[in-house]
Amino acid sequence: RRWRQKGFNYGPSLVRGVATSAIGAGVVLVAVYVGLGLVGQIFPGSENYTDGAALLSDAARSTMGFPGVILFGGIVLLACLTTAAGLIGATCEFFHKIIPSVSYRTWAVFFAAASVVVSTLGLDVVLSIAAPIIGFLYPIAITLVAITIIEPLLGSTIPNQLDRGDRLGGPHDRRGHGRGCVAPPRLVARS
To answer: Is 8 exposed, middle or buried (0-12, 13-18, 19+ CB in 10 A)?
Structure first.
């Protein structure tokens, strides 16, 4: 919706705008992660650290002193807050659509409180719970994103729910539904 408010309409201009933003964000993220990796490689004694947070904090302290630690802490805080706000917002919107009787604000308070409770368990516990879930869901999500990206390149070789009645059901009735159509009526375009 925001893209349309900024003057991007449906179709090619919207796709170009989203693609440009995604590529720009990807380039910046690659630069950040390569930089973090280099800090881990060149910082003296980096093999003695058990986690990256302590390593980066000490790297900031050794290069910029106490102000560097404050700056690093502020950057991490802002990164975490923006991520948390995005996740809570998306989750609340999703659950509010599923259960509209519960307000968006109620969902936001619930998920923010749940996040605070989960955060007190510690990173190791959170990762031990999240890692199997992420390991299961990521391949599915990556496959769906890849199919979405390559679908326009394949043309009409991937079946579309809206035209399944043409291939599966034969002649259409007066409402546009093919006999034996697998797609539910709400997915079939009406004329």
So the answer is: middle
100 φ, ψ to 5°? -65, -15
pLDDT one-digit tens code per residue, 82-130:
999 999 999 999 999 999 999 999 999 999 999 999 889 888 888 898 8
pTM beyond cutoff 0.90? no
Separation between Cα atoms, residue 38 and residue 32, nearest integer Å: 10
Task: Tell me the C-alpha to C-alpha distance, in Å, between residue 97 and each of 66, 106, 144, 147, 159.
Answer: 46, 13, 22, 26, 27
CA distances (Å), 48 to each of 34, 40, 88, 122, in order? Answer: 20, 11, 36, 21
